[in-house]
Design brief:
195 residues, alpha+beta, Aminopeptidase, 5 helices, globular
């Protein structure tokens, strides 16, 4: 399972491989709603954006692919997402590091972005499983993951040390290949409600 580092285009969003030229666009996106202020989220502050992007790009050495999310209607960058922990031999990968400008939330943007990422993994790369991880207390993220159709595999207790020194319990979800047709139908139905 090899994931190509190419753009993924849908009706509402285009996912473009992350580059340093996207710094200003991501700074504007993160200033809309200031999601870095959420204690349980791992979102960079505007002044941390260059380092955040450099680290994301460096992850390509391990097979990670980071994207900026572009709203097709406005052509503005509204957030970022990525594949990470790509396990080629076991045909699985995680999707995460996702955050959006406040104006993009509760729109078709995240639904279609996830659809594009999952289609690429299951239909093109023939993945066996896709994993999602989030802070146990990030109820908005957990709800969004559950709305995709992912199932809770469990909670990794005291899994990570957060920037403020607190310990993060990580909720781990997955979608497996046999579930993908139903998950795709669910996502397509959600998108049809935005037309």
């Amino acid at each position: 399972m090899r994931i190509k580092n190419t753009a993924l285009k849908g009706r509402y969003v285009t996912l473009v491989p992350l580059e340093l030229c996207h710094i200003d666009g991501l700074k504007c996106a993160v200033e809309d709603g200031e999601p870095w202020r959420l204690w349980y989220a791992s979102v960079p502050k505007p002044e941390q954006m260059q380092t955040y992007i450099e680290q994301a790009i460096a992850g390509a050495e391990n097979g990670d692919i980071a994207y900026v999310v572009i709203d097709n209607k406005t052509q503005k960058i509204v957030g970022t997402t990525r594949y990470y922990q790509v396990d080629v031999s076991n045909k699985r990968a995680a999707i995460g590091y996702t955050w959006y400008a406040n104006s993009a939330r509760r729109t078709a943007i995240n639904t279609e972005a996830k659809l594009l990422l999952l289609e690429n993994l299951f239909d093109v790369c023939t993945a066996i499983a896709v994993v999602f991880k989030t802070h146990f207390f990030n109820h908005a993220s957990r709800s969004a993951i559950e709305r995709l159709g992912a199932k809770l595999d469990g909670v990794l207790r005291a899994h990570q040390i957060m920037p403020d020194g607190s310990l993060r319990d990580t909720a781990v979800y997955s979608i497996i290949a046999s579930e993908w047709p139903a998950v795709r139908n669910n996502l397509m139905h959600k998108l049809s409600m935005h037309q």
